[in-house]
Amino acid sequence: MTTETTYKLNLRHLRTEDYDAVREISAKVYKGFSEPYTKKEIDSLISRFSEGQICIEDNGKPVAVALAIIIDFSLFGNHHTYDQITAKGTFKSHDPEGDYLYGIEVFVDPDYRGMRLGRRLYDARKDLAVNLNLKGILLGGRIPGYREHAGTISAQEYILKVQNREIVDNVLTFQMSNDFHVLNLLDNYWLEDRNSKGNAVLLEWLNIYYEKKTRLIGGTKSIARLGVVQWQMRRFISFDDFMQQVEFFVDTVSDYQSDIVLFPELFNAPLIHTYEGQNPSDAMRMLAEHTENIRIAMVEMALSYNINIVTGSVPAITEDGRLTNVAYLCRRDGTWDSQEKLHITPDEETHWGFSGGDKLKVFDTDVGKVGVLICYDVEFPELARLQTQKGMKILLVPFWTDTRNGYLRVRRCAQARAIENECFVAISGSVGNIPKVETMGIQYSQAAIFTPSDFSFPHDAIAAEATPGVETTLITDLDLDLIKELRAKGSVRNMESRRTDLYDLLWLQP
């Protein structure tokens, strides 16, 4: 007579609410020589790379867990430590544009051993590496059986004997049976692992389906050519006249094979003069009637001129009737997205009736992840930090300022964002005058592109800057690989050194 099993196993992604179960399993597996993973560590892994955190649940409760990140292997090489790979447990080393999946951890509840759950997790990792088109999977594999042989043979000799099947090591033998091959010994990899005497084995599984990424079809460019427009405010006769000037700059910048063109904040404001006699708030709402046509036209331009366009910003009316200040990213593949201005200045609220948005985004493009902060928003350092934590390498800042002191607030804050977040920051503003337009009579701008401050970048951390007060464009190449290298090997490493054990950021909106 057979009895029906009570197991109900299911493979899924790990969730933050699974932490208690993860802690319980970790405490069982590493009892006596390692503290269980903290909730902060698990939350960090899930927020940075949710696809890489996998578990097998039994009747809804995780009983086996696999944790992983993506790395750029060239930044670490064949000799590294666990702390280096995990950025001391912060997992800031996760690189969505990296080339290898790195297995941080696999552990199975001892009560479920013998059910081949570890193999299921490894197979799921392999599927993930294939789906993400990664070169393969790397592991710093433990060798706990070495404790019994440490007095007689070296770690290198022990690994060789396991490879030759002269010795069985519960971990290394299992990994080799899952098609992982040994690259080299990692001495002093994880000093807490007393059974392995601090050693580990660098193991690799190769993805035979990997397709080398190219710049022509898919993939992400390592050099981004950025065009920034310093826009002349003028009294356009009509909407069509305004769009003709917009298309001129898109055409001009695209002729230089640029990847992105950035326009300034409220660059369609000169059309307000067509609503002469209206108060500023009503005129701005009337101007918002053009916004949908601007977005449609610029998506079409992005396609026809093969360039990603950041529209600067324009007024828009939300479904609930609020007036917002919004920038559109029009990609050259025909898709688009938007970023609302979050912080509204006192004058913008008083004169025009703008209200702030509640979402902060990072956009995927064919030149990597970019963020947009509109003018005043760049003066709040928390926003750029949150975007950087999501992988942003280029921050685009459309702004509008009337006086030089207002401009300098934007410029100095943008420069600070570039240095503290180890990213490129471009600012685009307007120049000139608009007679008889209340609250928008004068503008001051010196468009610029800022860099981090280290040896691989310009000595003054400025990639390019325009002449103040004239209509012009900046076109500059940005080497995104330098950002990767800086974050891993720079003279100082702001992203890595940040004391998240003392303080951290929390985005409260869903």
Automatic annotation (TrEMBL):
The protein, known as: Putative enzyme
N-acetyltransferase domain mapped to chain residues: 9-181
EC top class named in words: hydrolase
Alphabetical UniProt keywords: Hydrolase
The organism's taxonomic lineage, starting at the top: Bacteria, Pseudomonadati, Thermodesulfobacteriota, Desulfobacteria, Desulfobacterales
Pfam families the record matches: Acetyltransf_1, CN_hydrolase
All copies of domain CN hydrolase, residue ranges: 224-480
Family membership: Belongs to the carbon-nitrogen hydrolase superfamily. NIT1/NIT2 family.
UniProt keyword Ribosomal protein, yes or no: no
PROSITE patterns, sorted: CN_HYDROLASE, GNAT, UPF0012
Superkingdom, taxonomy of origin: Bacteria
Keyword field contains tRNA-binding: no
Gene name, Swiss-Prot/TrEMBL: yhcX
E.C. number: 3.5.-.-
InterPro entries, per database record: Acyl_CoA_acyltransferase, C-N_Hydrolase, C-N_Hydrolase_sf, GNAT_dom, UPF0012_CS
Molecular function via GO: acyltransferase activity, transferring groups other than amino-acyl groups; hydrolase activity
